[in-house]
Specification:
Blueprint: E1 5-10, H1 14-27, E2 30-37, H2 41-52, E3 62-63, E4 72-76, H3 81-91, E5 94-98, E6 110-114, E7 125-128, H4 137-150, E8 158-162, H5 174-187, E9 192-196, H6 203-210, E10 216-218, H7 228-234, E11 237-241, H8 245-253, E12 258-262, H9 270-280
Parallel strand pairs: 1-2, 1-4, 4-5, 5-6, 6-7, 8-9, 8-11, 9-10, 11-12
Antiparallel strand pairs: 2-3
Helix pairs in contact: 4-7, 5-6
């Protein structure tokens, strides 16, 4: 009650700040986004020590300008969790952490954590089956129209392949990705094939894609365009690499396509593995 505006603290990673924005939209709360950063990795590491002893210092990070009229501070991602607490205390606002804030004390007013992320059984923890996402129907319609300008509608159904890439703990195996694409091509019986990569996709994977008979190919390294909302709405079947739980959650919760998870990393992180296992059930 009495919550009208939220300050979203962003680390600049769409997979993180989009979940904070989704929470605000689901709550019906207006929001403003500010980006936070550290001057060095040492200072970032220092925030863990400060947090352990309950010390709050705004001098440890840089943040964009904002006013003082906020009742919530919301953030996702390890680079934001300390700033979340400091800014909430400064504003007299409630603090909300999205995803598990590992390495920091869980003394936020609320934590919204997917079940696969090993949430602690605390009274302020709210668990969700997948990552938070929000469907803005008007924005989706605009993205679909934008995509149709690039690739006009035909009379064939479409399969979409959404390729992520390397993460901090695992690397995409270009050989496994190529083998997965071979299987997808062998399964097709007339469907169009649409493929998009991301900013994390290895160059070797994009090189392989250029050689394949693909009806619509978007390479992020050549243009930072995002066709994923259109893929989710228009495809009958989606093949999504398992490296991003946020990307998988978006595909599962929006549209009506069947979703296949492609496990093409050299080593799958435990978190992603738990998420895929839960989806399979």
């Amino acid at each position: 009650t009495g919550i009208n505006r939220a300050l979203v603290v962003s680390d600049g990673r769409p997979g993180h700040f989009n979940q904070s924005i989704a929470l605000c939209r689901l709550l019906g709360v207006a929001f403003e986004v500010v980006e936070v950063s550290f001057c060095s990795s040492f200072v970032r590491a220092l925030t863990h020590l400060f947090d352990l002893f309950g010390l709050r210092s705004a001098s440890l990070f840089r943040v964009g300008d904002f006013d003082d009229d906020f009742q919530l501070v919301v953030s996702a991602g390890s680079r934001t969790y300390y700033a979340n607490k400091v800014l909430a205390a400064k504003l007299g606002a409630r603090s909300v952490a999205v995803l598990a804030p590992r390495g920091y004390r869980w003394d936020y007013d609320c934590l919204v954590i997917p079940e696969y992320d090993s949430a602690k059984p605390l009274p302020q923890v709210v668990t969700t089956p997948v990552n938070l996402s929000y469907i803005d129907e008007q924005l989706v319609a605009e993205r679909v129209a934008e995509f149709r300008e690039r690739h006009p509608a035909g009379d064939k159904p479409a399969w979409g392949v959404i390729i992520g890439g390397d993460s901090t703990r695992s690397k995409m195996d270009a050989g496994k990705m190529a083998a997965a694409l071979d299987r997808i091509e062998a399964m097709r019986v007339g469907e169009e094939l649409w493929v998009t990569t991301s900013r994390r996709t290895p160059a070797a994977v994009e090189t392989d894609l250029r050689k394949r008979p693909i009806n619509f190919l978007h390479l992020y390294s050549e243009e930072p365009y995002n066709p994923i909302p259109a893929f989710v709405q228009l495809c009958d079947r989606l093949f999504v690499t398992g490296d991003s739980t946020a990307m998988l959650s978006e595909c599962i919760t929006a549209g009506s396509a069947a979703v296949d998870v492609l496990l093409v990393a050299s080593e799958t992180e435990a978190k992603q593995h738990r998420f895929v296992q839960r989806l399979a059930k």
